[in-house]
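Practice set, problem 2.
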Amino acid sequence: MQMATIETVSQAEFLKSRQSLNAFSGYFEIAGRDAQVARQFSWGSTGEALADIPGLPFRLNGGELDYRTCISYLAGESPFLNIKECPLAGYALCQI
């Protein structure tokens, strides 16, 4: 098992559909990490850059951040990818 990646619209839509069916809500840490380049993130498991996914925007939580940032998925009616200083508190979203 490893931390989840969200790389396609269909993956984002699947997570959104689970929220409405199962009361799946809150912040969930995923494999996105600071790529050590300004305003860029990569998947910790593969090193690949995070791509923009329509309908799943990035939002900065906590003002200006430098490095040591992580990404979490906010499950809710309007999901988004939350940019926050590491480590994140909350749940982990894993994939098998």
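Problem 2, part (b): a different protein.
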Amino acid sequence: MAAPGASNLVILIIMFTEERARWIYQHYRWLETHLPKRAAGKQPVLVTPTPEFYPQANTRNHAFAAAMFEATKELMELQNWKCRLSSQREDHADRDAALARSGVYGRTEHKGAAGTFQIDEEIQITYSPQLVHEPVALVATFSHELCHYLLATVKTEPPCGWKEHEPLTDLAAVHEGFGVFLCNSAFQFSQWTDSQYQGWKWRKQGYLTEAELGFALGVYCVRSGIQPDTAGKFLKMNPGEVFWDSIGYITELEEKERAAQMGAPSIAPRRRSVFSSLASLWRRKSAQK
């Protein structure tokens, strides 16, 4: 039996427009100028879900989360920035048990980053304890919340205004090198069945969509001079499709900006637009339903 509504799940890439892509590009450039600078001469580093960056053994408890948090702070050069990490209260257990007893288990979650950033007498960052079972989503959450800390130091208002600070914070996490983690945790779907039970679950995490994050990661790679395959080989299909199709578009956008600064004639498009590629992908997905 298919999960209720599974056949009607919206493929998030249909919401991605050229206007939104230019918002991402514009605000990424703004972040480059306004976020605190890294150590002199420090090159951008794409953080990947590998032991090179996160060698910690997953003990699925707060000690593991704390170790991952400290590693993320160090990768962002924030190890000397004081803040306290704490686990949120978990309230899903009773509901999940009741659903499981019914024989069909289903759950939908739509949330922003699965954590919070608070300033009281001290900086406090919280996370959902469920995330110790999902290290990629855990790192995505930590990088997002730590970017709230970074953005709190910025005095200049962004072009979008502070009302859009949450999607801007997702973009800041991509700028800091954590785009692979945000792309791969933005949308999760799973289902299972056995002799007694069947179930499904989908969850959206974060404020930018899979498509927007895939494009943002493309901007990061082009602007940082990082080979696309370094990131692309780690990506799930949906953000990966957008990521690979975005590279040519972003490269051409950069060329147009350089030409405009030099007063040269505008460059005619030479590559298929990422948006025509997305339209083709949407048609293929629809035909498979």
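Answer key, part (b): Confidence is low (pLDDT under 50) at residues 1-14, 93-110, 198-202. The chain has nine helices and six strands.
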